[in-house]
Amino acid sequence: MIVGCQAGRANRHGLTPGFKVKAVNLGGWLVTEGGIVPSLFDGIPNKDLLDGTQIRLKSVTIGKYVCAENGGGTILVANRTSAASWEAFKLWRINKNTFNFRVFSNHFAGVVQDSKGSPAVVAEAKTPAASEIFRIVRKSDDKNRVRIQASNGLYLQAKTEDSVTADYAGDAGWGDDNPSVFVMSIVNTLLGEFQVTNGYGPEKAPRVMRNHWKTFIVEDDFRFISHNGLNAVRIPVGWWIASGPNPPKPFVGGSLQALDNAFTWAQKYGIRVIVDLHAAPGAQNRFDPSASRDGTVEWGKSNATVQQTVSVIDFLSSRYAKFPNLLAVELLNEPLAPVVTVETLKKYYQAGYNAVRKHSSSAYVIMSNRIEGPMNPRELFPLAGRLQLNVIDVHYYSLFEDKYNGLNVHQNIDFIYNNRSSELGYVTNSNGGPLIFVGEWTAEWLVNGATKEDYQKFAKAQLQVYRRATFGWAYWTYKSVKNHWNLRWMIQNGYITL
């Protein structure tokens, strides 16, 4: 028997009177997120140099940082006394030792012959080829001390502040007198699906990922969820799930069977399912769960990425509309403003809505608000308000923004009861507007030394406020190595009562 929305007579929104979604996200399962399951990366050689890792290089002879002049499009120089965005290189991993270096302007560093016939290093290529391949050689007892071998077999050297070339042939050790030695610092990393699958490579990645899908979430988890007061799960998926057993590299096929299992287990235990497209083609935000290669947001910049995403929604809706416990399809998770424009988003959401409605008249269609950037929290209302069984998803964290720094326990809790309550009230329209879903929240914060009682009060405050959301809420996440993000741990240890 399926409990909740199908029982009784539905109201004008399709919800049974009194029913609210009380859900948990199954994060880190079918879309990798390294902060949730860091051990998934343990077997990758040079696992600190994955796709999207940002590095800085400082010449030991000159004592200054290397950068692409003007951010890209011309030569590399070694004349920066401090490092900022232009002085970082994003890695595209070819194997454990060889990489492409992407610069601020999204050009790639490579080797060309200058006017004197010398191999100069420039950042001019829009797409990497053979001349844009570099091998990072690390000092055995100090991995931050590196030499970089170019495709011509020679090493990069900082000859002068204005001349970085690929013509150093000697060894000459690792001392500060060697112009081919650089100090490498890692300033940012990504730990998503692209990084884990490309990191392991085509031979090992399928085994690692399929084992993860089989073991991270199992049938007993749905029993636990059902027996602890929850009535739904929100399951993040990636666009490659619709690509069959052999999706575009480096992604791995097999997550579709895991999602099939989830529907079967959920139905057995009376749990409704929200299928959430967490990673779209080209990436809709710069974070790990978008499966971006290097944090660049390409989704929506071309109509092709949008149409491909609509096709994914069509596939998922067609496949799962036959399951009576399909509660909703979420069209996209956390599109990033202003890179993703509201105009592009509205066009996609209308097309995605139509794709769901081709296969189901009863499934809800969830539209995520944009994150960051300048935006109006009600910017989707004109579209969503005229559609049936439509929901707007908002995410609330007491993290990630400077305004939470330094708040003590009582200030954080007051913020939930006052500011957050007002934010939720602003997007909740009782006069026929779209339903509101707090699709992600967690009982973690930036308070050091908080007691168990403090966490209990913080969780209780959020539950009291978020239960006012007209569609319901979903905790992030069900399992995690970080205890307070881990709802199963929080329940088992008495930190939260649902």
UniProtKB/TrEMBL annotation:
Q: Give the matching Gene3D superfamilies.
A: 2.80.10.50, Glycosidases
Any Pfam family hit: Cellulase
User: What is stated as this protein's family in its record?
Assistant: Belongs to the glycosyl hydrolase 5 (cellulase A) family.
Q: Where is the Glycoside hydrolase family domain?
A: 208-479
Give all residue intervals belonging to the DUF7910 domain.
46-187
| Stored PROSITE patterns | GLYCOSYL_HYDROL_F5
Keyword annotations for this protein, in alphabetical order, are: Glycosidase, Hydrolase
Q: What is the lineage of its organism?
A: Eukaryota, Viridiplantae, Streptophyta, Embryophyta, Tracheophyta
Top-level taxon of origin: Eukaryota
Is Lipoprotein among this UniProt entry's keywords? no
GO biological process entries: actin filament bundle assembly; cell migration; establishment or maintenance of cell polarity; polysaccharide catabolic process
The protein in question is named Mannan endo-1,4-beta-mannosidase
